[in-house]
Amino acid sequence: MLRVAIDGPSGTGKSTIAKAVAARFGLEYIDTGAMYRALGLKALRNGVDAADEAAVKKMLDETAIDFAGGCTMLDDEDVSGLIRTNEISMAASNISKLAIVRAKVDEVSRYLASTKDVVMEGRDIGTTVIPDAEVKIFMTASPEIRARRRYEQLLEAGKEADYDKIYEEVQARDYQDSHREVSPLRQAEDAAFLDTSDLNIEEVVDAVSGIITEKTGRTA
Ligand code: DC
After folding, report:
1. Does ligand 1 have an atom closer than 6 angstroms to the CB of 8?
2. What would the pLDDT profile of 162-214 be if each residue is shown by its tens digit?
3. Mean pLDDT score across all residues of the chain
4. Is 140 in the pocket of ligand 1 (CB under 6 A)?
5. Cα 47 to middle of ligand 1, angstroms
6. Per the CB 3.0–4.6 Å rule, which of 16, 97, 101, 196 could disulfide with 180?
7. CA–CA separation, 131 vs 88, rounded Å?
8. Residue 55 pLDDT > 90, yes or no?
């Protein structure tokens, strides 16, 4: 069994790296943030306030989420594209504060990790979701670099982007994700720390691959 947990704030390149590492080692890639995003999307669509726990509970009881074959499924609808907006980023961060929401995503995530070898990325995979993961990595980069990467991604996608606004959003979401009561973003004691500020994608993939090989003896 091989479970690679990659945690860290947004904009560190976690998703790109996790996907590349999964392909290199023949593992399944699981994006837990995408499931919080899908629940954030449903809450927005249905006018459910993240602060209204009873309403969120009712919504959860009537919702199926899954991360199947690289697609984010919300009640059998593929929402993979729809959830990549700034509005949904904040909605996901808001709804992810609730313990009942986290329990639902944790249950799906743990089930997926029990059926196959995975690279799972999120905020609390190494601390809460799979604390006994064979490999744990905490990835970070400076807020300025993370905002700059997001800004460039948006420009490349032909979308409008305001660097100062993105920088503020990065900081607001970091603060919210690391100060919530339930499973806040933090490094697991036994996680390898990786600062990607001055590394390109290939260098980070190599570094993560090296950690996997060192910990497990598995080679790509
Ligand atoms: O990784 P991401 O930006 O797609 O995640 C969206 C939000 O979901 C993020 O702001 C915090 C939350 N999240 C979480 O609380 N725990 C996880 N394991 C993954 C994401």
Report:
1. no
2. 999 999 999 998 998 899 999 899 999 999 999 999 999 999 999 999 999 99
3. 95
4. no
5. 20
6. 97
7. 28
8. yes
The residue type of 61 is D
Look at the block and give the residue holding tokens 């944790």. 106
Average pLDDT, integer, range 41-64 = 97
How confident is the model at residue 153, as a pLDDT?
86
What are residue 4's DSSP bridge partners? Answer: 119, 135
Q: How confident is the model at residue 69 (pLDDT cuts 50, 70, 90)?
A: confident
Instruction: Give the pair of three-digit tokens for residue 43.
Output: 């809450």
Domain boundaries along the sequence of the chain: 3-216
Question: d(Cα 163, Cα 207) in Å, to the nearest integer?
Answer: 29
| Chosen CATH of 3-216 out of 1.10.290.10, 3.40.50.300, 3.10.180.10, 3.90.1150.10 | 3.40.50.300
Q: What is the DSSP letter of 83?
A: T
Distance CA 212, CA 218 (A): 7
Using CA positions, which residue lies closest to atom 6 of ligand 1? Answer: 33
pTM score of the predicted model: 0.94
- Residues β-bridged to residue 29: 119
37 touches ligand 1 (CB under 6 Å): yes
Residue-level pLDDT at 86: 83
Any bridge partners for residue 30, and if so which? 120
Does any ligand 1 atom lie closer than 6 A to the CB of residue 128? Answer: no
What is the model's pLDDT at position 168?
Answer: 94
**What is the DSSP code (8-state) at residue 191?**
P
Residue nearest ligand 1's atom 14 by CA: 123
Q: Which one, of 208, 203, 89, 36, lies nearest residue 138 by Cα? A: 208
